[in-house]
């Protein structure tokens, strides 16, 4: 018995809960292990290279993710991924400013100091949390009319980045102090808890989306946000800028960025590609089916045309050619005739056909007509023609056959009928020779009819 949709949904939700539990256990274990045994200050010579590499990787992934969303949204009316991409673009640049603001880094924008680095960090995390929370609303929504404003959105994002750079680097006092000589400030801790609250709300929103759409992509986003929460917990609890708790927070962020990129790549590149491959396979299958149907329809049409062509030239009951085709073949025969050519026609008529119909019924009469045509075709040459003119009246056209040859054919027909006719029946025949008895079709057929009439008068079952 197959799984119902409700059961399948419950299994998927249970699978997601198990994955979240695993992530929570691993992250919690690392955090507890750091607090209980690993937590210690690090020298700048150790911390800065690790921090720089992690931050550079996160910046690189953020910019790559933006690039994926930008180019995969060219003809897309859904701004969900594009919105996340713009957010990651802003966060990527702010993270770049963040790691260049650490003490010990070269001076690029302003003199590096812990407060500036922490400000960049908090602003970047705020933007990230807000972007993912708002993105819940954008999921599966389409606004095609916004396509014309894409570059304006990009300009606004870069404008925000420029504002953050200028204000933090050159006018940091407009923001609450995030780090002093005594360590993290109360404002920093409150901001981190607000960020965690935004992330928790985003997780709740994505859980709702997953329950509604059951999209595996959403599992990756939920995992990303969950790890980001643990990253923020580390950034609340570290005591010194260069310590293992701060480094662990950056490692969590490193893991979350990997999941972000994988999620966006899967949603914007892999999923459409697989859909395209599936569509191509379905199209190829449909094309094969269509071609097969076309072949079958063509075959049926050809057969129908053959039947129509045969119906236009043959009698539907007996299979003998009809009167019109007889005239056509007669004309062709005369076109190919030479001066010394002799042709014959045999006019045939059943003897007492009405009696057969009255005695045995019309169905038996029809069978007798078929028997006659079949018997006649068996004894004549392939170049000869058996034609039904109507009722029980037939005409046999014998090209290049003199009167004596026609008489031989007639006798063969009579002999064959005597062998196979059931019920027994006979035919009378009249022979006419071209050009002796008429050069035109109507004259020749008229002579054959007269000879047939004479055969009837002289006792039937004979030829004249």
Automatic annotation (TrEMBL):
Molecular functions per Gene Ontology: diguanylate cyclase activity
Name the Gene Ontology biological process terms. cell adhesion involved in single-species biofilm formation; negative regulation of bacterial-type flagellum-dependent cell motility
Domain of life from the UniProt record? Bacteria
Entry keywords, A to Z:
Coiled coil, Membrane, Transmembrane, Transmembrane helix
Membrane-spanning residues: 20-38, 50-71, 78-99, 119-139, 151-170, 190-210, 217-238, 250-269
InterPro entries per record? Diguanylate_Cyclase (IPR050469), GGDEF_dom (IPR000160), MASE3 (IPR033425), Nucleotide_cyclase (IPR029787), Rev_trsase/Diguanyl_cyclase (IPR043128)
Database matches in Pfam families: GGDEF, MASE3
Coiled-coil annotation: which residues? 276-311
**GGDEF domain ranges (all copies):** 341-464
Tell me which SUPFAM superfamilies the record gives: Nucleotide cyclase
Q: Which GO CC annotations does the UniProt entry carry?
A: plasma membrane
Record-given protein name: Diguanylate cyclase (GGDEF) domain-containing protein
């Amino acid at each position: 018995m197959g799984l119902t949709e409700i059961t399948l949904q419950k299994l998927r939700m249970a699978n997601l809960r198990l994955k979240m539990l695993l992530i929570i256990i691993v992250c919690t274990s690392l955090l507890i292990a750091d607090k209980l045994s690993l937590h210690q200050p690090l020298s700048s010579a150790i911390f800065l290279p690790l921090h720089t590499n992690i931050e550079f990787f996160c910046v690189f992934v953020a910019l790559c993710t933006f690039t994926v969303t930008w180019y995969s949204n060219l003809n897309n009316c859904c701004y969900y991924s594009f919105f996340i991409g713009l957010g990651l673009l802003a966060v990527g640049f702010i993270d770049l400013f963040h790691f260049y603001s650490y003490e010990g880094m070269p001076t690029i924008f302003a003199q590096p100091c812990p407060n500036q680095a922490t400000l960049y960090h908090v602003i970047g995390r705020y933007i990230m949390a807000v972007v993912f929370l708002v993105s819940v609303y954008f999921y599966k929504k389409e606004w095609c009319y916004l396509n014309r404003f894409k570059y304006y959105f990009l300009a606004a994002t870069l404008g925000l980045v420029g504002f953050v750079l200028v204000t933090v680097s050159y006018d940091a006092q407009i923001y609450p102090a995030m780090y002093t000589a005594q360590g993290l400030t109360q404002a920093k801790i409150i901001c981190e808890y607000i960020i965690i609250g935004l992330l928790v709300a985003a997780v709740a929103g994505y859980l709702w989306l997953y329950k509604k759409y059951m999209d595996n992509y959403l599992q990756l986003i939920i995992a990303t946000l969950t790890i980001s929460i643990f990253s923020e917990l580390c950034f609340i609890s570290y005591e010194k800028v260069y310590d293992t708790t701060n480094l662990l927070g950056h490692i969590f962020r490193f893991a979350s960025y990997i999941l972000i990129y994988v999620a966006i790549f899967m949603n914007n590149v892999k999923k459409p590609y697989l859909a395209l491959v599936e569509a191509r396979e379905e199209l190829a299958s449909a094309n094969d089916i269509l071609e097969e149907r076309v072949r079958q329809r063509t075959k049926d049409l050809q057969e129908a045309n053959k039947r129509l062509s045969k119906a236009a030239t043959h009698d539907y009951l007996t299979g003998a050619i009809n009167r019109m085709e007889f005239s056509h073949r007669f004309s062709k025969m005369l076109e190919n005739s030479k001066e010394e050519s002799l042709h014959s026609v045999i006019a045939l008529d059943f003897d007492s056909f009405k009696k057969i119909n009255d005695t045995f019924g019309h169905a038996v009469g029809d069978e007798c007509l078929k028997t006659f045509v079949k018997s006649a075709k068996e004894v004549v040459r392939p170049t000869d023609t058996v034609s039904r003119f109507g009722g029980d009246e037939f005409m046999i056209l014998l090209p290049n056959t003199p009167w004596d040859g026609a008489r031989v054919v007639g006798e063969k027909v009579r002999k064959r009928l005597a062998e196979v006719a059931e019920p027994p029946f006979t035919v009378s025949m009249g022979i006419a020779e071209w050009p002796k008895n008429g050069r035109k079709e109507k004259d020749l057929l008229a002579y054959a009819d007269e000879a047939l009439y004479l055969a009837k008068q002289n006792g039937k079952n004979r030829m004249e």
